Target: DUF6787 domain-containing protein
Amino acid sequence: MKKIKDRWEIRKNWQLFFPFLGFSLVILTAYWISRRLLHTFGLNNTLVEWVFTLGSTIGLTVVMIRFFLWCFKKLEHKWKVAHKWEMIAIFIVFAITGSLSGKLAGPLVEWIGLGENNTHGAIYWTARILLIFPIYQCILVFVGWLFGQFKFFWEFEKKMLRRMGLGFLLS
Model:
């Protein structure tokens, strides 16, 4: 435990929440991907189902953890955070926000009357993708606030809007 605390600059026990939540979410994601692959290859309800699921979950978990550690190393100097554990919180916020905005865009497009069943596919997907952007912007700051990273995400948001030529929205 001391090694984990030292590596992630954890000073208080409540900060351990972020590495454990991040690790749990990586395992859960690897499991979901493994189950999808299982169904894609038609291996469900066979003798190899659980062997495949367990093996691919472990393999994907290792690959994803290595990838995220590589990302942490690359972004460590670019993102100005006080402690390394905050980077885990930031990654979790990005994951939640991206997934949630993608999920919310579908029902919102349906609600405004551009449903997948009554609209051409190109119009439906264009509207859905265009709606993801404002949903993402609103949710990003809120979820960042929930995870104690409001300042980071507010600065991130302002920088992104300025780069897109939408800085006038901040006035």
User: Anything to note?
Assistant: The chain has two domains: 1-78, 80-170. The helical segments are 2-7, 17-40, 49-75, 85-111, 121-146, 150-163. The radius of gyration is 20 Å.
